[in-house]
Amino acid sequence: MYLDYWGLSKVPFSNVPDSRFFYKSRAHREALTRPSYLCTHQHGAGILVGPFGSGKTLLDFVRLNSINKEDGFRSAFIRNPRVSPLELLQLIAGELGALSVPRNKAEALRSIETCLHNNILDGRHTIIVIDEAHSIEGEDMFEVVRLLLNFQLEDAHLLTLILIGQPGIDVKVDRHKPLSQHVNLIVNLSAFSLAETEGDIRHRLQVAGRSEEIFNAEAIGTLFRVSRGLPRRINHLCDSCLLESFLADAKQVNREIVLQAAFVSRGQGSSP
């Protein structure tokens, strides 16, 4: 609706993962680099921890998109682990290219192991990413996750497992000692600073085709306070701001428009 008004070629503030809009803050650069180290060195497992809306899923989308362009990796991305242990294994087997759906846990593990060895023969290391890992419940589920890490060669794991979740996932894993012993890395993803919030907004607008400023400094400061620097909230509020300013025939987004957008989309952030 507002694209032509602002001279944009695409929606700049969508929360749908798109690597073109990824802004590398200090914390995001670290969270991108450290798990990549796990994968390239064939370590066992890592955990990416961050609050809802901190950009964890986009971050791993960027990582997997980059990894999948390389010849040395094969990846599986599990978006919803709120399933039974057998269903989780079936999902992983399917993502790795299993030719049939395993009927029980033993068959599923054999199928996954076959896929892992086939990847090794093809010169590829396997990466399994489980998003929303904080929603995993029950010892039987954590035990199934641990069993995946039993697939090893003498000097390396056959797969690298990355768990992505909200604060508390690291505590859950630590309670399951047989699994936690395989964890080589825990990365905590922090929110954007004020400068990073401004950088993210400018980057997204430039990718969408706009070089001139839309948000003035006061508006960006208000956006930062309302969103608390969380990328998902920033995107939602900025999108609302562009719509509100279009409806008001405004030439720039100011503090008042940000407050109006925050009121209209209340529940997405806190009061400044």
Can you offer a commentary on this structure?
With 272 residues, this protein is α/β, with parallel strands linked by helices. It has 2 domains: 3-14 and 192-264, Helicase, Ruva Protein, domain 3; 26-188, Rossmann fold (3-Layer(aba) Sandwich). It contains 12 helices and 5 strands. The protein has helices spanning 3-6, 26-40, 56-68, 85-95, 105-121, 139-148, 169-175, 177-180, 194-207, 217-227, 231-247, 255-264; strands spanning 45-49, 73-78, 125-130, 159-165, 183-188. It has a 5-stranded parallel sheet with strand order 2-3-4-1-5, sandwiched between helices. Helix 10 (217-227) packs across helix 11, helix 10 (217-227) runs parallel beside helix 12 (255-264) and helix 11 (231-247) crosses helix 12. The radius of gyration is 21 Å and the shape is elongated. It starts with a helix and ends in an 8-residue tail after the last helix.
Low-confidence stretches: 267-272
What are the secondary-structure elements, in order, as H or E? Answer: HHEHEHHEHEHHEHHHH
The first-level CATH class of the largest domain is given as: Alpha Beta
Q: How far apart lie the N and C ends?
A: 28 Å
Structural class: alpha/beta
Beta-strand percentage range: 5-15%
Overall pLDDT score: 88
Instruction: Please work out how many helical segments DSSP would assign.
Output: 12
Largest sheet: 5 strands, parallel
CATH homologous superfamily heading of the largest domain: P-loop containing nucleotide triphosphate hydrolases
Number of strands: 5
Number of domain units? 2
CATH fold node name of the largest domain = Rossmann fold
Helix content: 40-55%
Q: Give the neighbour order of strands across the main sheet.
A: 2-3-4-1-5
CATH architecture of the largest domain: 3-Layer(aba) Sandwich
